[in-house]
Design a protein that fits this description.
The protein has 191 residues and is α+β, with helices and mostly antiparallel strands. The protein has 5 helices and 9 strands. The chain has helices at 48-70, 89-95, 106-110, 115-131, 176-190, and strands spanning 6-7, 10-14, 20-33, 36-46, 73-79, 84-87, 135-142, 148-159, 165-174. The strands form 2 sheets. A 5-stranded antiparallel β-sheet has the order 6-5-9-8-7, with helices on both faces. Strand 3 (20-33) and strand 4 (36-46) form a beta hairpin. The longest helix is centred in the first third of the chain and has 23 residues, at 48-70. The relative contact order is 0.10.
């Protein structure tokens, strides 16, 4: 018989009460009659919770992307274990780089900060990790086109079940407009 053909589809079904359930079928044909499947064995598993979780995650991700776009912000994640840095689309936009052209590392991302700010931000991250505390940091970065961008970073450490820090997650916001308005208001108040 050789390799037994296998099926593994996921379908929505309606229960007698009218409720929709998502099920995954796993089956193998083990006997043919006249070159047609005749007997098979398999199982059905209710995967409704997984399906709903994926739908919720997709919906929440869409909300997050919309919030990033409206708030001129993005989110990032630094994996402490393998030193991988993830940037959302919003963070790429703030820096003026494209995901296909630039893969950030902690050290290369640090280079976007003005020289006098690089050590301060690195110390901020190191303190957050050692103290297992979140942080708030305002700074200025240099956009890839050379313009200065005032930014605000909010971060939170991520710990495993042994209370070891495994990552840092944060929000990165372009606050240039609001900071410029604030500076103008301060000047006007002095007049």
């Amino acid at each position: 018989a050789g390799n037994l053909p296998c099926i593994n589809p996921t379908y929505p079904i309606k229960t007698k009460s009218g409720e929709t359930k998502w099920v995954t079928l796993v089956g193998k044909i083990f006997e043919y009659k006249e070159d047609k499947p005749y007997k098979m064995f398999g199982s059905i598993k209710d995967v409704s919770e997984n399906h709903l979780l994926v739908e919720r995650l997709e919906k929440n991700n869409n909300y997050l992307l919309l919030a990033e776009k409206l708030g001129n912000s993005g989110h990032w994640h630094l994996n402490i274990v393998d030193q991988e840095l993830y940037w959302s689309k919003g963070v790429y936009v703030i820096h003026g780089v494209k995901p296909n052209d630039y893969q950030p590392t902690f050290d290369t991302a640090l280079n976007f900060f003005l020289p006098e700010e690089q050590l301060k931000f690195k110390a901020c991250i190191e303190h957050a990790i050692s103290s297992k505390q979140g942080f708030h940091f305002k700074s200025t970065i240099k956009h890839v086109l050379g313009k200065k961008v005032k930014v605000e970073l909010l971060g939170k450490v991520e710990v495993n079940n042994k209370e070891e820090v495994v990552g840092v997650f944060g929000v990165f916001r372009d606050i240039t407009k609001s900071e410029n308005i604030f500076e103008k208001l301060k000047l006007l108040a002095m007049v």
